[in-house]
């Protein structure tokens, strides 16, 4: 049993040195990820108008979305190691320019490029985890990946606030140094190259058109989009609901803190059991619990009800997200792993962008409708996940002319066939948590 479903301790002990370096580099990078968080405050402190600071932050966001897509393509064509190195070294170098640029238009352009470079590493890092980890450890390793990501995301703003007490400029220099350190770590990673027959199998196979032609995977992407529209309501509508029910903003802050603490404390221990579930069931249960949790907010203004609802959707996040993170890399055909991982991130980003507009608009017309609507949308998301999550045949990648560090190619089999079969694949969280 332990061989098929490794424990947290067993997984950590068996992680290879490159995996440790990758996770450490990502943690260091997240600890120093200050630009997006403090850009508006920095620019207004420098005397720029608030609308200009908002424009720069928007440019950073647009660049981030483009960077994920570009990173998927570049990682498949040129290898995961060099994508991470170029992404992090470039982002670090350009971040230092923010400090010295005198005009807002230049800052907006540089912010967009930094956003693109700063996110381009993510498909490559997730794909490399797939290549370097046995399949039976994929879900657990991605839970470890998410723990490092969440710890960095939680501690980073506090470190940034401390640095600001000395100097905004110092904060951005530290941001740049952490990115360059990740690039240095990445230089020691194996040079993994995608399968060389990737583009030879039909028109569009080597592009994102090839991803969209995979109809089952597009159903999986639809499930991610619908789930994102529901999930983001905890940021957009929940604070409105909390205060409208006569509670203080401090309650909302406490609910967010409860979510963060529970995810950090319990995701790894619970993943020990979740990894035994068929993948499509784990995702369906996770997506379903997120929807049920949001739907529970309609139950009334009692603080206890807010706490229960938050714990339910937090459990859904814990159950579903590690498997969601692993799945795109597991089902990608040869030479397409980076693109599949990047493509899976896009519907979530679109959902996170559209969800607040949909939710707040509906809430102004019918407050309870947001939470009932979340339940209805979740039904469709669960159906899409169950219908879309099957595994096609794949082949191993190539590392400097030799097979990548994997134990065997994945045989063709549905993901709901029970215990994992072969040992080769993985992907990243998309997005944030």
From TrEMBL:
* Molecular function terms from GO: transmembrane transporter activity
Q: Please give, as recorded in its UniProt entry, the membrane topology of this protein.
A: Multi-pass membrane protein
Q: Where is this region: Disordered?
A: 394-433
Q: Does the keyword Cytoplasm apply?
A: no
Where is this chain's protein located in or outside the cell?
A: Cell membrane
Transmembrane region positions?
20-41, 48-71, 91-118, 139-164, 170-189, 217-239, 251-269, 281-298, 304-328, 340-363, 369-387
Keywords for this protein: Cell membrane, Membrane, Transmembrane, Transmembrane helix, Transport
Q: Which PANTHER family match?
A: MULTIDRUG RESISTANCE PROTEIN MDTH, RESISTANCE PROTEIN MDTM, PUTATIVE-RELATED-RELATED
Q: What name does the UniProt record give this protein?
A: MFS transporter
